[in-house]
Structures are given as C-alpha cells and as structure tokens.
Amino acid sequence: xHIVFASANKNKIQEISALIPSTYILVxxxxxxxxxxxxxxxxxxxxxxxxxxxxxxxxxxxxxxPWAVIADDSGLEVEALNGEPGVYSARYAGIQKNDTANNKxxxxxxxxxxNRKAIFVTTITLILNNQIFFFNGEINGxxxxxxxxxxxxxxxxxxxxxxxxxTFAELEKDVKNKISHRAIALKKVIQYxxxx
Length: 196
Prior knowledge:
By secondary structure, the chain is an alpha/beta fold. It has five helices and six strands, in the order βαβαβαβββαα. Helix 4 packs across helix 5 (181-195).
C-alpha cells in the first residue's frame, strides 16, 4: 500500500519513515509534485491535521491515485501558559517558523513560573478509501531551563519526557521513536491498517 505523508518537514518525514513498516511505501509530497505550503488555518491541532490530509487527498483524486494519506499536526501544551503554544507551536515566535526563536520565546514566557509541566500532543489523520480516521498520541514531560541536545527539532531541546532525565534532543532516535507523541499516534495508525 502506498501512503502519502502530507508534510514538507524533512525531520518529520525521517521520523515517520523510520516508524513505517516496509510493507508500506511512504510517498512524500515532493514525490507527487506538491511543493506549495499547505495552509494550516485550523483552530485546533486536529483541525490542522485534517486540513492537510484533505488537501492532499483531493490532489490524489485528481491524479487518479487511490493511495492512502496521513497528515500529522503536533503541538506543545505548557500548563503554566494555559496550554500555549498549542496549535501555534510551529509559529509561536512568528510565521517564519524558526525553531530557535520559538524555543527562546517559550523560555522567556516561562521565566516567571516554577511549574514547567507540559504535554506534547499529536493528531494523525488518515484518509483511506474516502473515509477519514483520527489517531492521537501524547506524552507528558517538563520544560528544561535551557536547550540541551542536538538530535531533535522543534521543541525537542526543551522537552524532557516523563521518566527521563534527558530532552528529546539528547535521546537517541530509536528511543525517541518508541516513546514520542508522534510514535504513539503512528503505532495506532499502523495497528488499524494491519487489521484491514
């Protein structure tokens, strides 16, 4: 089965590729000629995931490609900041989507708080045979006092998953790929696909 992953984020594509069994063929947006940014105009993480999946599914229909589509949207929800940055995680410091600037803004916003609890959440939307399904994943953790590690992307240098002393960016990829919010959601997708 061909599965189109509705993302241009090379880091996410690498992560998903490592998690998809070899029985499935993962296809990128570039592979099907989509080079434009897909608008993320939703009010929730689930909305944005669905918007991206539907956008790609419509193009596949026009190209007469009966492939499955998956799209993910993720966000970091910080308790002391009333769930921010949440749906705005990628563009927290501006529409340029700069990871370093986002991390700096988050640390600045958290400077006056001692509560550093956070949850990383993901919704993956699957469109298959004109049906739509949603799969969620989340992981609890805390926000570090400063960025640590070079292996991750986004907020990985700041997020310390519960039960660990290291940030996502310090953990080896195979460890992160077992416990992350995205991995949890994707495992549910694969379990579903394996049943049909």
